[in-house]
Amino acid sequence: MEQIGAIAELIDALKKLPGVGPRAAQRIAYQLLNGDRSDANRLGEALLKATKTVHRCARCNNLTDGELCSYCSSHNRDDSLLCIVESVADLMVIEQSLSYHGRYFILMGRLSPLNGVGPHEIGLDKLLERAGEPEVKEVIIATSFTAEGEATAFAVSELLSKHYPQLKLTRIARGVPAGAEIEYTDVNTVAQAMLNRRVRESD
Ligand SMILES: [Zn+2]
């Protein structure tokens, strides 16, 4: 059945969500619009509110509706550790693994020169500033073990070792399979990788 107008627009928007294919999008759209509309209204209002109030944390790039996110403003985290991840989704997986209690810095993606994504686009200048704060003693590079994630890890470690030779730079261990995204790795593997992190060899 071909959809037109507002329903088609809704289905089209839902199809863009991660893990939602055309059939699921159709199912969700009809579920939202059938009968009682309270769920649909709640979703619409929550989405609108979030898009207006949520922004990047000034310190780590996490998403927050305060000035600083909960990880940056918490008094119960180890200031000497700074873990670098590619996305908020990766941060969430590391948090769920319960293997880390330091601070975070979220890159705005990973280096992809062919797509025009360079050091500036992923926020390496902001990272340089953050990692240079005196309380930071160890930077843990937790980018994915994909080609782009590895290239990003290399660029980060080159940059930081050049500017801050006293800083300990570690990379989460290879328990995470080659080519794997942190986001889709199970939390036990991530916990192991964090515990077995290694000091980066200078190449
Ligand atoms: Zn933050």
What does this entry look like structurally?
With 203 residues, the chain is α/β, with parallel strands linked by helices. The protein has two domains: 5-53, RecR Domain 1 (Helicase, Ruva Protein, domain 3, Orthogonal Bundle), CATH 1.10.8; 63-199, Dna Topoisomerase Vi A Subunit, Chain: A, domain 2, CATH 3.40.1360.10. Helix content is 42%, strand content 13%. The strands form two sheets. Strands 4-3-5-6-7 form a five-stranded mixed β-sheet. Strands 1-2 form a two-stranded antiparallel ribbon. The longest helix is centred in the last third of the chain and has 17 residues, at 147-163. The radius of gyration is 20 Å and the shape is elongated. Zinc ion binds at residues 57, 59-60, 62, 68-69, 71-72. InterPro entries: DNA_Rcmb_RecR, Rcmb_RecR, Rcmb_RecR_Znf, TOPRIM_dom, TOPRIM_RecR. GO terms for molecular function: DNA binding; zinc ion binding.
The gist of it:
GO terms for molecular function: DNA binding; zinc ion binding. This protein has eight helices and seven strands.
Helix content: 40-55%
The shape is: elongated
Number of E-state strands: 7
Determine the mean pLDDT.
90
Enumerate the spans where pLDDT stays under 50 for 5 or more consecutive residues.
none
Kindly report the CATH topology of the largest domain.
Dna Topoisomerase Vi A Subunit, Chain: A, domain 2
Looking at the overall shape, the CATH architecture of the largest domain is 3-Layer(aba) Sandwich
> What is the CA-atom radius of gyration, in angstroms?
20 Å
Strand content: 5-15%
Q: Could you give the distance between the termini?
A: 58 Å
List cofactors, ions and other ligands.
Answer: zinc ion
> How many discrete structural domains?
2
Characterize the biggest β-sheet: 5 strands, mixed
CATH class descriptor of the largest domain: Alpha Beta
The helix/strand series, from N terminus to C terminus, equals: HHHEEHEHEHEHEHE
User: Based on helices, strands and strand pairing, what is the structural class?
Assistant: alpha/beta
For the biggest β-sheet, the strand order reads 4-3-5-6-7
Number of helices: 8
Work out the oligomeric state of the chains in this entry.
single chain
